[in-house]
Amino acid sequence: LAKQEFDQKFNAAVAMERRRETEKGPSALIQTTHGAQLEITNLTRYGHPGIWNGQRLNIELKEISEQYRSRERPHKLLAMAQIDGEMEDGKPKYRKLGTVSQQSVADYNLKQGMVTAGAFLKEIKPEMSRGQTSLLFQQAYQSAEAFRASIPESERLSAAAAAWSISATRQDEVEHNQDVQKKVSNFAFAAFPDEIVSRLGELQFTDMKLVTLDNEANNFKGKVWNPNEKYPVEIRASHHPQDHERHGSRLVFVQDDAGEYKEFAMLEPRTGQLPIGTKAQANIVPGETYTATGTIAVAGKAPIEFTIREISKFSYSGQEFHAQSANLAIGTVPVPNQAVKIQLDGKTLGELDADSVKQLEQVNYLKNGNTLNLKFTPITDGNKVTSLVAESQQGNLLKINKVDVYDFQKESFGSNDYKKVTLEIPQSKTRDAVFLDGKPLGVLHFKKDKEALKDLGVLQFGKLNEVPATLQSNFSHTFVKIDPNTVEYPQVWTKEKQVSPSPDNSVATLQQEMIDKSAPLLRQIKERPTFLFVTPEDKMLGIMGMAVDNHKVETVTRWLAKQNVTFKQILPEQVPRETKKGLAVFNLITDSIPDQTIEAMTKKFGEVIESVDEYQQKVKSLPNRPQNLKVPESTVISPKIEPPNAVVNYSTIPLSDKSSLSETQNNSGEKTNQGTVNQQTVTIQDLRDWYVTAEKLARSEPYKQRIMEVANHFKQTQQLSDKAVASMKYDTQQHQDIIRISQIVQRIGAVLGKTRADGSSYVQGKMYDIAFDPNKKNLIIANKSGELVLGVQSGNITLNQVSPEVVTHFDEVNAKLDDYVKKNQNQDMER
């Protein structure tokens, strides 16, 4: 239950972080006439001009073709919208509005072709912030810490082991069942970090599983090991040829009575692995027995041997037999079925967990038809409920398994009400079985065994026949339990490949040599073209993209720097599709590109691609770059940290600044060269305040890092460059301007605003539309083209395109508002 609480919060945080990566800018919450609330995301990508002040919407859903979807753009549905009855040539005008959030698709089972008419815009939601995600992650870890604190310190180590057991997937589970959902161990590390770290003080790989005991290489076949005695063992690399069962593995050698180490068994590949050459003292303990061999002596004939299977499911589970005599009862008779089922409303809910069966047995309540009043907490595996934790009215807990197999597999189990369930002890199943002392030992499986026993007259239908026999447990595996205090590691550690190299190594080496020699020629043949492209939102923000062959990164970087272009190379993992095709992607600040440079670029590489679909198609048409073609290390020149004349959104552009700071302007507007001066009026506190201001303005991490570098330099030299002073003044002034605009917007909203149902106010002006929520401290300003100018969420700036013109405009509106208020006050006094 504690893991489920953690997983729900952690997964919600991961999902929100994923949405932050794939849903940029504000989103719209659309209320349909049937009460459904659809969230439309990536509004700025498609730029529908009517969404910022629209009221009524008719929406049609279209499918986004799979070829245009990617990890960065996973959405499957596109919303086309006619807003406020817009018409064109006498027909309804539908424009691309945005992508339908994946949550809305899941909640309402949305499909392409669905339409809704008469919907209205309920809310414009700001872009999700990193702070929201961080809060969710924090809540998840707090729940794990609270769980740990609720456990007595003496029990925490065992609780940590239990947490690990339910948090980690066994490899053999995955191998035998491909539908098994792989578990994630985040909960164990979150709840028990100290306990996990404490286990690192001593060797953990002490219990190692050994297999291939029947192989002819085992020098100790038939030996009965004393489990209380320690034997000298050594880990060695296999010396067997490629077609041998033990080839390419690690082997355990045991010292015999003569003091010589001889081969015993192979370490199971998934068990703990110690370095080749390690020596230690170890106990050798047989593994659990799942089968046994029964032998019946027949006078004048060869003994009859038969295999007894499924021993672990019956009364003698875990018991070992070492050639002991026993009277076995054999026959085709009813055998108890161990599965206890839970019935709810006459249908099967699931199977009672084995531990829960024991709990009911201990209080003598495990009887067919007995009832229980339980309330359920569902435990999910992936997206389906696989088991339930059931709580009785007395607070006792039971576990019900296989809920996804029986009649309630689609039930959500969201209610806290107690429900009456009934125990169903399934009737016995007729099987070919073997009994010992009146209790079931196991069942017969092999046809030859059954025929031999029938010929002997022992295996008969409906009747048990006793026969004297000997029993020998069959061990397919055994364990060595290493004494950590006796471990002797080798002086030189050896890799397995060094001991047993692949016969194909020489061929692989030759192939690699050929690849290395032909690499220069292959690079020329496989050279990728250069694309210039721009998305609608990037165009709005003053950015242009450039995709180039990733073997040319260093050359392109030097050329852009020489042209004084402000740029930033995008990390390869952020553009996986381009990276796979052998492309590197740069973002360029459009205003920093000289006219003659952009003219030369378009002449050489073609016109700027403004269609997202066209750009994606061009990238997709390229073959994947061969992985064995090494990409030269790239050199990325970091841009400088000066604010530009053009305003760019710091919060969404992966650039470390906006333009070059090699020149600044003096009061007369003339450009001056950068210089270094002693700024006596600037203190280290001013630089700290600058950093805080940059954070409030949602400046990029490289930009803030540069401020720290400037501050450190100032501490040492007391020197500050003109460009740093100019940048600091620019940021300080812009922050003050945004505060002032926010105050004016609040005043406008109070006087002229229309109130929405959620308590927010909105005003439609001649040049700008504003929406303001004083309770949530949210603010949006957009111009009449639908472009966002300022976004504030929970008091934090998320989008900033405030220019001096915007400040001037709102100052003028504020002055007019003074006149308006004064005029109304005079009229009231006259009345």
Question: What's the structural blueprint in terms of helices and strands?
Answer:
Blueprint: H1 2-22, E1 27-31, E2 37-41, H2 43-46, E3 56-63, E4 77-83, E5 87-88, E6 91-92, E7 95-100, H3 102-108, E8 115-125, H4 130-149, H5 156-167, H6 171-176, H7 186-191, H8 193-198, E9 207-211, E10 230-237, E11 250-255, E12 261-267, E13 279-286, E14 291-296, E15 304-309, E16 322-335, E17 341-344, E18 347-352, H9 354-362, E19 371-381, E20 384-392, E21 397-401, E22 419-424, E23 429-436, E24 439-444, H10 447-455, E25 465-474, E26 478-482, H11 496-499, H12 505-525, E27 531-533, H13 536-541, E28 543-549, H14 553-562, E29 567-569, H15 576-580, E30 583-589, H16 595-605, H17 612-621, E31 663-665, E32 671-673, E33 676-677, H18 684-696, H19 701-717, E34 720-721, H20 722-752, E35 754-755, E36 761-764, E37 768-773, E38 778-783, E39 788-793, E40 796-800, H21 804-830
Antiparallel strand pairs: 1-2, 1-8, 2-7, 3-4, 3-8, 4-7, 5-6, 9-12, 9-26, 10-11, 10-13, 11-12, 13-26, 14-15, 14-25, 15-24, 16-23, 16-25, 17-18, 17-22, 18-21, 19-20, 19-22, 20-21, 23-24, 27-28, 28-30, 29-30, 31-32, 33-34, 35-36, 36-37, 37-38, 38-39, 39-40
Describe the structure.
- The chain is of the alpha+beta class and 831 residues long.
- 31% of the residues lie in helices and 28% in strands.
- The strands form nine sheets. It has a six-stranded antiparallel barrel. The chain has a six-stranded antiparallel barrel with strand order 9-12-11-10-13-26. Strands 14-15-24-23-16-25 form a six-stranded antiparallel β-barrel.
- Helix 18 (684-696) packs antiparallel against helix 19, helix 18 packs across helix 20 (722-752) and helix 20 packs parallel to helix 21.
- The longest helix is centred in the C-terminal third of the chain and has 31 residues, at 722-752.
- The two termini are 69 Å apart.
- Mean pLDDT is 81; it is low at 503-507 and 631-680.
